[in-house]
Design goal:
The complex is a heterotrimer of chains A (about 290), B (about 250) and C (about 260).
Chain A lengths: L21 H11 L4 E6 L2 E9 L14 E3 L3 E7 L1 H22 L5 H14 L11 E9 L29 E7 L5 E3 L2 E4 L3 H10 L9 H16 L7 E9 L9 E3 L2 H27 L1
Helix pairs in contact in A: 2-3, 4-5, 5-6
Chain B lengths: L19 H12 L3 E5 L3 E7 L13 E5 L2 E7 L1 H22 L5 H14 L11 E9 L2 E7 L5 E3 L2 E4 L3 H10 L1 H4 L4 H14 L12 E7 L2 E6 L5 H8 L17
Antiparallel strand pairs in B: 1-2, 1-8, 2-9, 3-4, 4-5, 5-6, 6-7, 9-10
Chain C lengths: L12 H4 L21 E3 L2 E6 L2 E7 L2 E3 L2 E4 L5 E5 L2 E8 H18 L11 H17 L6 E8 L5 E7 L4 E3 L2 E3 L2 H5 L1 H7 L11 H18 L6 E8 L2 E9 L20
Antiparallel strand pairs in C: 1-4, 1-7, 2-3, 2-11, 3-12, 4-5, 6-7, 7-8, 8-9, 9-10, 12-13
The chains are: A alpha+beta (about 290), B alpha+beta (about 250), C alpha+beta (about 260).
């Protein structure tokens, strides 16, 4: 970054002569130092996982949850400045609640990603604010069945004249990632934070686009990937936090919840084993 | 200290992604006298050193009871803490009025943290210059939260903030395993010992410069000062010789 | 038409004269709801030693017309609270939405091991009702909150459109307050007798009340919902039908309807 110190990087919303908004780029730097966060879109649900670095022995174990629930069927995990992450979540919850008030239905994941993208973008437009110091991953399950409206009186026609198309597919698992610039994409597998490079290359190996990975496999892969990503900052302890959301028929019944302790511990055990296996391989190679 | 171009306000990131104004606000916390907090399965204890401006003046308030189930201890700008504590009192009463429920500690902590965060993202505001320890009991049992000017909050088993608090934290880390099952009296003693560690050589804990706040399961949060704490000070430090001495050679936070 | 966008699509002043905006003005003071429109009738509930039984029929009436016959007037809040609604159905739907958003907010923190209990919810709802009546814009309902309190003990209390609250071991709203309460009180006259009542007895008692209400309340129906709240959770059945009805007594009624003698 050669233009540092030329004065174009001192205020938000200012372009440099070569068309860059430096304050946004610096916000991205804040994200790159945060613990690794990933999301995997499986065929029957979404998994979110976070590498939570332990900064002090005095912290209470298992408390300080950082993957947040928005509405009932969506989760947000972010990497970067913690308080900014909470600001993001609090706005997302307001958006979801407002959507419900207006449409009497839960907000689709895509709509939430869109609204949050717009919200984050606004914080790049003015010199009176600073951009968000977080990149957030939003994962959710949009209900595939028609949900009852509150206090529903009668149910109306199931297809046809009720305005519903017969046999139309809707709902399913969705995953988006929103960056400090307000840019967002939909993903099969998303990673951000310090270990994103190695996490991304692990995600790419999974061939998620094929849509074969099940939710339970996804949980195990997510744990493994976080452990792999942690290799870069091995000197620090960390806690693995994982949440998931499935369909109404799945294990979470359409809700975004913490992955049950037993399953998480099993996934961690496998992750550690896989890592040791890798180490053995490299040892073997070195011997050769 | 160096001046750089990126530390004028809290809406400017440095090229490394840091916000200097917020980091400077954290320094204000270290200017305040030390406070510590500890929790067991049944109790939450706060202990604080009070300063006085001069010999004949009164001592500064360090522990503020907020609701009957919890209180806070502060290090840094006392007036910022007053603003936050007023807000906390208001929110706590609102919870009791609308739901007939003692506000959960995690809830009230995030509410002030969200306020603090706003001050770090908008021009024309400054971050709060105070750190808080929030301790008490709610439906889920005893809790201790740490609040920082950046808006970071963490639930802790034990914590110390303020001047020379690293010494207190070292003591707490060393005795970490004992807190969970400690009795009310033992927990208070631990808090006082941690506090003592942070004191400079020539200073002593006295009934004038020490405050203790205690909350517990089926026990309202109460602030103890003056003669009420004489007994604790006596029993805690009577066997001072045998107590573990970790002061020497420890690093002092700058 | 001129260049001013606000005039586009409106009648031209030079042809039709200036628009008489007095049509837009309403005269007199603001008025809010003066009476309910689509209504549900009684809700009955009784405490027993391990919990609470609550019931309401599935009818929403439009005046004297039995307009909707599959209306769920018992609403489960969480695993230990059910709210029963009498009165205006659209206001009930508003309250249901309110409770839904409250539930969503309560579940943000992943470990919901201290959920809002029945007493919390009743306090909240009574504040909502009282606020609205103080704004001269009441929610036209009479609600019963049934469930467990903070000590896991049976809890039953009501709140009405005036913000009045009342708690008792037996409660009924609407017509039920006149017709069902005396029956409920025969078995459960006071708080002490709650301990002697089993779940089965309580359910039978409530079903008996629903039958009497169907016999005597012209705005009631024989399809109803019934919920039992205990430590084990909420057992809510929404498609029950009154059993063993006997209308033989109707033959003996005189002085009403088309009769020969």
């Amino acid at each position: 970054m050669t233009s540092i110190g030329t004065g174009y990087d001192l205020s938000n919303s200012v372009f440099s002569p070569d068309g860059r908004n430096f304050q946004v780029e610096y916000a991205v730097k804040a994200v790159e130092n945060g613990g690794t966060a990933i999301g995997i879109r499986c065929k029957d649900g979404v998994v979110l996982a976070l590498e939570k670095l332990i900064t002090s022995k005095l912290l209470k174990h298992g408390a300080n949850k950082r993957i947040a629930t928005v509405d009932r069927n969506m989760g947000v995990v972010s990497s970067g400045l913690l308080p900014d992450g909470r600001h993001f979540v609090s706005r997302a919850r307001d958006e979801a609640a407002e959507w419900r008030r207006f449409y009497k239905a839960p907000i689709p994941t895509s709509a939430l990603a869109n609204r949050m993208g717009s919200y984050v973008q606004v914080y790049t437009l003015y010199s009176s604010v600073r951009p968000f110091g977080v990149t957030s991953i939003v994962g959710g399950w949009d209900p595939e069945s028609e949900l009852p409206v509150d206090g529903q009186v009668g149910s109306g026609p199931s297809v046809g004249a009720g305005g519903k198309t017969e046999g139309a597919q809707h709902g399913g698992p969705f995953l988006y990632m929103i960056e400090p610039s307000g840019l967002y994409w939909g993903y099969y597998g998303a990673a951000t934070g310090k270990g994103r490079q190695s996490a991304k290359s692990e995600l790419e190996k999974l061939d998620l686009a094929a849509g074969n990975l099940t939710l339970e496999e996804g949980v195990k892969e997510a744990a493994r990937i976080i452990y792999v990503a942690h290799e870069d900052s091995k000197d620090k302890d960390f806690e693995l936090e994982m949440t998931w959301v499935s369909s109404l028929d799945g294990p979470t019944k359409g809700r975004h919840e913490e992955v049950p302790k037993e399953l998480r511990e099993e996934a961690e055990r496998l992750a550690k084993k896989a890592l040791e296996g890798d180490d053995d391989e490299t040892d073997d190679k070195m011997e050769e | 200290m160096f001046r750089n171009n990126y530390d004028n306000d809290s809406v400017t990131f440095s090229p490394q992604g840091r916000i200097f104004q917020v980091e400077y606000a954290q320094e204000a916390v270290k200017q305040g006298s030390v406070v510590v907090g500890v929790v067991s399965k049944t109790h939450a204890v706060l202990a604080a050193i009070k300063r006085n401006a001069e010999e004949l003046s009164s001592y500064q308030k360090k522990i503020i009871p907020i609701d009957s189930h919890y209180g806070i201890a502060l290090a840094g700008l006392a007036s910022d803490a007053r603003v936050l504590s007023n807000f906390m009192k208001q929110q706590s009463l609102a919870s009791r009025l609308t739901y007939d429920r003692a506000i959960p500690l995690s809830e009230i902590t995030t509410r002030i943290a969200d306020r603090a965060q706003t001050n770090t993202q908008q021009y024309g505001r400054r971050p709060y210059g105070v750190g808080l320890l929030i301790a008490g009991v709610d439906a889920k049992g005893p809790h201790l939260f740490e609040f920082q000017p950046s808006g970071v909050t963490q639930e802790m088993v034990a914590c110390g903030i303020g001047a020379r608090s690293q010494m207190a934290r070292t003591y707490l880390e060393r005795n970490l395993d004992e807190f969970d099952d400690a009795s009310r009296e033992e927990l208070i003693k631990h808090a006082l010992r941690a506090l003592k560690e942070s004191l400079s050589q020539d200073k002593e804990l006295t009934i004038d410069n020490t405050s203790i706040g205690v909350g517990g399961v089926n026990e309202n949060f109460k602030l103890y000062e003056g003669q009420e704490i004489a007994g604790w000070l006596e029993t805690t430090f009577e066997s001072r010789e045998s107590a573990p001495e970790g002061g020497e050679g420890m690093e002092v936070d700058s | 038409m001129n260049h001013l966008p606000q005039a586009w699509g409106r009648p031209r002043d030079d042809v039709y004269g200036a628009y008489d905006s007095s049509h837009l003005q309403t005269s007199g003071p603001n008025q809010h709801t003066q009476s309910p429109v689509v209504t549900g009738t009684s809700v009955v509930a009784v405490k027993f030693k391990d919990g609470v039984v609550i019931a309401a029929d599935n009818l929403a009436s439009y005046g004297s017309l039995a307009r909707f016959t599959d209306v769920k007037r018992l609403r489960r809040f969480n695993s230990q609270v059910v709210v029963g609604f009498g009165g205006d159905v659209s206001d009930m739907q508003y309250l249901d939405r309110l409770l839904n958003s409250l539930d969503i907010r309560e579940n943000y923190s992943s470990a919901s091991d201290s959920p809002l209990h029945a007493k919390n919810l009743h306090t909240y709802l009574s504040k909502v009702m009282y606020k609205r009546r103080s704004d001269f814009n009441p929610l036209w309902n009479h609600l019963l909150v049934a469930g467990l309190d903070g000590e896991q003990k049976p809890f039953l209390a009501s709140a009405d459109l005036l913000g009045t609250t009342f708690a008792s071991s037996t409660l009924a709203t609407g017509f039920g307050a006149h017709l069902a309460q005396p029956i409920l009180r025969r078995t459960v006259p006071d708080e002490d007798s709650v301990q002697k009542v089993t779940k089965e007895q309580a359910v039978e008692l409530v079903k008996e009340c629903m039958k009497v209400l169907f016999y005597r309340d012209a705005r009631s129906m024989d399809k109803y919902s019934i919920a039992v709240v205990t430590k084990e959770g909420v057992d809510l059945k929404e498609d029950e039908k009154l059993e063993k009805q006997s209308w033989a007594f109707a033959e003996g009624i005189r002085g009403y309807g088309t009769q020969i003698n």
